[in-house]
């Protein structure tokens, strides 16, 4: 703190900053090893571990490979082989999951709007007999996971558009494919797949918007507009929960019937109330976490489930994501990108917010909740309520088993705690990220006006009679450990950051930068015999291993 003040910056937090959950910075989470792919940017986004073979599987987007790594000695990981998917017709590896000797790889097709593929292989990278070219699924399978009983693999097929330009007066599915979810039956010798989209909800667009979701792609049908992002499967192995990131919603899937049973709108976060503030300016030269008259769209990326008593809870990492595509704002040129997120000073009508030192540089949407599909919107469309991207938080939601469209039941949101954790532990580089052109860390507060530390990934697991969660913050590169034994009242335990601000991501000297995927391995699954979180870092191309030690144990 004193060093920050010496540099001429101030530190201000809201009166709510003294929340009791902020105090601990324990030492349960211990860094033990790291593996570098050597591929640099995009070299390690998502990882999976097969416990029996003690092998790690990494999506290496830089080389379009799955890197298979021996982690039997976790302190000395060794590359076994890299399996290339370019020759199999894939334009990009998206995700990977592994369990009981089965590895499922999610890959884009020849183009991102073409049907995607799930490849099923063994731990040596050999494709399953009868499926040399994989299983065809919906466009751009962005996440895949395997149920704990090994019966199902489920992928979220984003169906991301290439543009919103009309062809003969309509938006074709070749430009904006339907978002979908694929369920693979792994229990049979030759796995089979069922893919389901959101056609059954086609007439419920207004209901989803009313429930707190977003359906706003110009001229897109509801089925085209919905974009599944990430999958979690409940402990019952019967139900999947899928984040619909750009739509600010979660879908529930019955795996046995391959049916989407409901869509839960997440609503909006009021940053102008107790303990829900944010730092909204990158031009005030200070850490200033205060209440503002802003609304946050949760727009979650990763999701996990926790069972407590008779209840199932969903936990989301509220990253936020803005659309930027040709013709999004009424243009007609496929070569010109148009973004939905101008600075508030350009479009906002609340003069209390328009100063750069307040919230004038905040990224806000010109598609607020009242705007529905078909409304003509431009970059100069004026907005009064300011809706920002992401909640800068994680949220616990209660599962809703009722079929239909509803608003999700929120039981806990971490409010402004993640920003306060970073402010306390890394004040000189608060809300800084890394520059992919120079390779160096960006300046203090570089991200304050745009999603802050950006919680991206999370994972949960049980150890030492407690339930634990790690939340990974993509821009900050830090991890936050929580005790979530009581999901209604998560307790912050520890902040840990293994990036090296003096290093260079392009030279591989920056430690672990920009976490994306997080895994939990119980003691019986871990190569070291101790519970462990495994985190993949996209910009540094590294995977780091963190053992979880018992609370209060000698270090």
Q: In words, what does this structure look like?
A:
With 555 residues, the protein is mainly beta. The protein has a domain of 163 residues: 7 Propeller (Methylamine Dehydrogenase, Chain H), CATH 2.130.10. Strands 15-16-17-18-28 form a five-stranded mixed beta sheet. A four-stranded antiparallel beta sheet has the order 2-36-35-34, with no helix packed on it. A four-stranded antiparallel beta sheet has the order 3-4-5-6, with no helix packed on it. A hairpin with a 4-residue loop joins strand 31 and strand 32.
Keywords for this entry:
555 residues; mainly beta; Methylamine Dehydrogenase, Chain H; five-stranded mixed beta sheet; four-stranded antiparallel beta sheet; 36 strands; globular; disordered N terminus
Structural class: mainly beta
Question: CATH topology of the domain at 38-200, which one?
Answer: Methylamine Dehydrogenase, Chain H
Mean pLDDT figure: 93
Q: Given this structure, which CATH class of the domain at 38-200 is correct?
A: Mainly Beta
Share in helix: under 10%
* Low-pLDDT stretches: 1-20
Shape assignment? globular
Rg computed from alpha carbons, rounded to a whole number of angstroms: 22 Å
Strand order of the largest sheet: 15-16-17-18-28
Q: How many runs of DSSP E, i.e. beta strands?
A: 36
CATH superfamily of the domain at 38-200: YVTN repeat-like/Quinoprotein amine dehydrogenase
* Main beta sheet: 5 strands, mixed
CATH architecture term of the domain at 38-200: 7 Propeller
How widely separated are the two ends?
A: 27 Å
Approximate strand percentage: 35-45%
* Total count of helical runs of at least 4 residues: 5
